[in-house]
Specification:
The protein is mainly beta.
Length: about 150
């Protein structure tokens, strides 16, 4: 499959949750919208991702939800531990930012890292956090992204 480069820019970023939104220009019909799952995944649910590890695209991998990791995660300002999705989906350099989706092709997470203690597991930003940041971004007037980029 030949690679295509697209012009894009970051229109929203939040370093606390390792989350950003890119606006990609002139994609034609190359991409289809993904739906967010309305329910959190359960331990044992089968999940998948697609990405470009080490430059090989597209690469689809799959695994299972291991849990919602609270171990070793720093609490936020209110003392609430961060809830991240932990899966047995293998993740490599190049998978970061890719969707983690369920059997119904609904997004349940976004790949962020390999688990430090368990390198065979991956860490994802939880679907609830994705929904939160999308609501923040799209809830404001972003008709002119160049003047409304958020950090």
């Amino acid at each position: 499959v030949p690679r295509t480069e697209y012009k894009a820019r970051v229109v929203y970023a939040n370093s606390d949750d390792d989350f950003c939104i890119l606006r990609v220009f002139d994609t034609g019909e190359q991409f289809v919208p993904l739906r967010l799952s309305e329910t959190a995944p359960m331990t044992g649910d089968r999940v998948h991702t697609i990405g470009s590890p080490a430059g090989a695209f597209p690469t689809k991998t799959e695994g299972y939800v291991v849990g919602h990791d609270l171990l070793g995660m720093e609490p936020d300002e209110e003392g609430v531990p961060k809830s991240l999705l932990v899966t047995s989906v293998p993740a490599y350099s190049g998978n970061s930012g890719g969707p983690v989706y369920n059997e119904r092709r609904e997004v349940v997470g976004m790949l962020a890292a390999t688990h430090m203690e368990y390198p065979h597991s991956s860490i994802s930003v939880h679907v609830e956090s994705i929904a939160y940041h999308l609501e923040l971004y799209f809830g404001e007037d972003n008709s002119d992204d160049s003047e409304n980029e958020k950090q």
